[in-house]
Design goal:
Helix 3 packs antiparallel against helix 4. 80% of the residues lie in helices and 0% in strands. The longest helix has 30 residues. The protein has a single domain, classed as Four Helix Bundle (Hemerythrin (Met), subunit A) (Up-down Bundle). The chain has four helices and no strands.
């Protein structure tokens, strides 16, 4: 496997970890131990404590961005792109994604939101760079 493919697997596993630990465990606990009904977690409506809402949104951020990253990585793989910069950008992208998620989980304070946005900008720059390399290789 190439570094970008490893990065893609890492991103997918990170997304799964968030849904399992952050969303799944909390909901299962609420239903099994606290006696809440399984349908008491309406989608699109705020429910649960602040930390739970942050982890839920952080998970959805991952879900929203994973297809874009996957498309870039898979096109690079299928096209046979072997470029050290492409590899590095893919790895930095995932590192920035983890950083953004951790910032999202940490707090909703303005300073932390700015840190989170910085991590997002790094991801955006990496994705644009990867796209540029793909278009230049063809």
């Amino acid at each position: 496997m190439t570094p970008p493919l490893y990065a893609l697997v890492a991103f997918a596993l990170w997304t799964l970890l968030l849904v399992f630990l952050g969303v799944g465990v909390w909901r299962v606990k609420r239903v099994v131990l606290d006696g809440e009904r399984p349908n008491s977690f309406p989608s699109g409506q705020p429910h649960g404590p602040d930390w739970y809402q942050r982890v839920n949104r952080a998970h959805m951020n991952c879900v929203e961005n994973l297809p874009i990253f996957a498309a870039l990585v898979l096109v690079g793989h299928v096209a046979g792109v072997r470029d050290a910069t492409f590899d590095l950008l893919a790895q930095v992208y995932v590192g920035a994604r983890v950083g953004q998620t951790l910032a999202h989980l940490a707090s909703g304070r303005s300073l932390v939101v700015n840190v989170r946005f910085t991590f997002f900008l790094v991801q955006l720059g990496c994705a644009l760079g990867m796209g540029w390399i793909l278009l230049s290789a063809g």
